[in-house]
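fwd from M.: "can u put these together and see what the complex looks like"

so here's what she sent:
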Amino acid sequence: MQDLSGYFEGFIKKNSIFVNKKVLLPSYCPEKILHREKQIEDIAKILAPSLKLEKPSNLFIYGKTGTGKTVTVRHVLSNLMSVSKKNNIPLKLVYVNCKLKKIADTEYRVVAQLAREFGKEIPTTGLPTDEVYNVLFNAIEKERGVIIIVLDEIDQLIKKTGDEILYNFTRIDSELKNTLLSIVGISNDLFFLNNLDPRVKSSLSEEEIVFEPYNAIQIQDILRTRVSEVFEEGVLAEGVIEKCAAYAARDHGDARRAIELLRVAAEIADRTNQKNIRIEHVDEAEEKIERDTVFYVIDNQPKQYQLTLFALFSLNNQSTVYTGDIYSYYKKLCVKAGLRPLTQRRISDILAEFDMLGLITAKVVSKGRYGRTREINLSIPNTIKQTIFASLKNNLGL
DNA sequence: CGAGATTCATGTGAAGTATACCTTTAGGCTTAA
DNA sequence: AAGCCTAAAGGTATACTTCACATGAATCTCGTA
């Protein structure tokens, strides 16, 4: 056993470049949200009636990732909440993220999760979905006040499981007697509402708010306000903020990404005992983030999914790959790994899921005489691919 | 030569199966009157 | 007789399989110019 006390002692003495790191964490909810004044005001106006015990309109919010949808909604809601508390208004807020695998990614699970938010115990399986709806309905009805339910990333859920849930919510909404229910849906997909049952559409999206992407200047603003709380003066080198903003604005003005970049860059600098953050650190952070997110996504997949992915990785050297190639290689791997192979039908679905997750780009093409298949390309940079490949290999014991 | 038929490899939908879990209910056992 | 526990019966969600049919352009076929 090595003696680590020296290291730990040093760790205490070492002054980190962070003054208050949590300001850069994704969970942080800033006091003031920049460049979203209009949206804040709109949402506030729409939800304000709840304070007078009038039913607020249902609301739909669109915007790409990192345009501040979630933060803004949270911000407005927490203000709303504190006012309602102060004035003793029976108001309850419920937030569910519909993207979380195994938690809220099917109709049953979302409804169950909501019921749990009301303190009900709902088993993971076994109950009829209708029954869970009843439990939820009764729980809501018993609240006697105003309830606002926020469904984040709802487009993912609908795409996967159909729009029955929304339909059922409108039904619940109209049958409630003692409680006023308002639903706030948050979607990344701007055209999401178009392929929805018109009845659901009209009743659920009484109001709509769009979040435009931030531009580079706005992202810089956002970063600057946070930076002043996180670092001492002079820790940031010239151009770091600009670089973070530029990276983030590159695809679609993703502020979350910009903040994360800055944080990770700072962590890298901090860990190597450097006194300031320079542009190289941002580059390094960019790569690390990419790697970590992909890692995270892959790590959370079931074994069969990982194996499929591994087969895909192995074959990817030959430009584009087709479903058949993957399946036959996958089967070989199953033998090697001692797993019972899934059917091609299932693998086809799994590949479609990877497409949804953004790990691959798959296009169904007809190759005439040579049949019809998915043309699959990995959408992961090569540098990262190597590391993940190795870890998958290790993970699967190959 | 070109229109229409054919073909291939797999997409895709529907229905069925296995598994894990839930509630209900009937029966059996215990207990107390 | 009432109360409590248990185990079987009957039901559900989910992940997966089976079956069957759909796709759609490259290729083939064959009548026609």
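replying to her w this: The radius of gyration of chain A is 24 Å.
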